[in-house]
Amino acid sequence: MNPIIITCAILLGLFLPAQGVMGATVKEIQAEGKAMMKDAEDMVAHGGMGDTKAIVHHCGEVTRHAEAIVKALPSTDPHGKDALPHLLEAIMHCRRVAELGDKVDPGASLNPAIKARSAAREAVRHLAALRESGA
């Protein structure tokens, strides 16, 4: 058999699974972004009710989702690059909430929680463009 055909078949076999992974990655990013925004909204809503434990819990979930998105972002997509600083900002603010803990006044943890939600919103806006570009 022709060595060129064999080489092409091997390379095709290597690249086709990568294409499937890229599609799964975009779906993972979509799911994580949606879940991150739900937790961010719940975090601030519970903060308005004075539930510091819920703020800390939901902020931990926002961090978990944001870190998963950071790991899944395609490194070559410009929208992913635009979302990255906002995801890192959300993580930073949520770490501040975790440092404060659940024994502080809800107002003290609500301020960084609101900043984390704003950063998450901005990141999701960029991630929506990532979806639209078909990356």
Summarize the structure.
With 135 residues, this protein is mostly helical.
What does this structure look like?
The protein is mainly alpha-helical. It has a single domain (28-133), classed as Up-down Bundle (Four Helix Bundle (Hemerythrin (Met), subunit A)), CATH 1.20.120.660. The protein is 87% helix and 0% strand. It is built from four helices and no strands. Helix 1 (3-48) runs antiparallel to helix 4, helix 2 runs parallel beside helix 4 (106-133) and helix 3 runs antiparallel to helix 4. The longest helix is centred in the N-terminal third of the chain and has 46 residues, at 3-48.
Explain the layout of strands and helices:
Elements (H helix, E strand, L loop, with lengths): L2 H46 L3 H21 L5 H23 L5 H28 L2
Helix pairs in contact: 1-2, 1-4, 2-3, 2-4, 3-4
Key traits:
single chain, 135 residues, mainly alpha, elongated, Four Helix Bundle (Hemerythrin (Met), subunit A), 4 helices
Continuous helix count: 4
Annotated CATH topology: Four Helix Bundle (Hemerythrin (Met), subunit A)
* CATH class value: Mainly Alpha
Please give the alpha-carbon distance between the first and last residues. 36 Å
Q: What does the average pLDDT come to?
A: 82
Number of domains: 1
The portion of residues forming beta strands comes to under 5%
Evaluate the radius of gyration: 19 Å
* Largest beta-sheet characterization: none
**Structural class, please?**
mainly alpha
CATH architectural group: Up-down Bundle
Number of strands: 0
Order of helices and strands: HHHH
Can you tell me the residue ranges where pLDDT is under 50 for at least 5 consecutive residues?
Answer: 5-9, 14-24
Query: In CATH, what is the homologous superfamily?
Result: IL-4 antagonist (De novo design) like domain
The share of residues in helices is: over 70%
The best one-word shape is elongated
